[in-house]
Amino acid sequence: MTTDASTSDLRIVRAVDGLDLALEPLQGLWSVEQYFKLTNQTNHLIEFTDGVIEVLPMPTRDHQIILAFLYELLVLLLRPQGGKVLFAPLRVQLRPGKFREPDLVVLLDAQDPRNQNDAWLGADLVIEIVSPDRPTRDTDEKPLDYAEAGFLEYWIVNPLTATIIVLVLDDAAYVTYGVFARGERARSKLIDDFSVSVDEVFDAT
Questions:
Q1: Residue 24 pLDDT more than 80?
Q2: CATH number of domain containing 68
Q3: pTM reported for the whole predicted model
Q4: Domain Putative restriction endonuclease spans what residues (predicted)?
């Protein structure tokens, strides 16, 4: 089964039996259970907010190379310390009725009860690689979402500007810990030993 990646023409297409189902009329009416069933049957990244689903574009090669580079660094650092690092597709609940699929998510303790099989119920650190189709999704909208969810740190890795912005939670909102450009090392406030060369991140592609 495939899912059309356009949020203005959401369709389920299954060639084996000729199924062609329009999803747009259901916007605002989806239940969490239906969202789970849908995402269990497609390889597209699909996010959910209060009955509305959004199908995200397929990641590019460069996006996936950057993701893999950061994932490997985090795993090497955190696995010996008992942490858990995962990557999309993985449903992450921000609050009841709202799910995102961040590029990378970190729990500092793998035994954290938020580490659930069907969906994580939160995270300590989250990383998004900005998508060119709608950059404001990652730069403007998700900081509000992730702050509301209480994620302690949010990294915005932006290939469009060759910068990495690190935001840290201060009460209920994010403040900028650093804006790191080429020639600098982006560093985490939450994880003492985690830093990365901005050049190496964007040159990995």
A1: no
A2: 3.90.1570.10
A3: 0.87
A4: 32-197
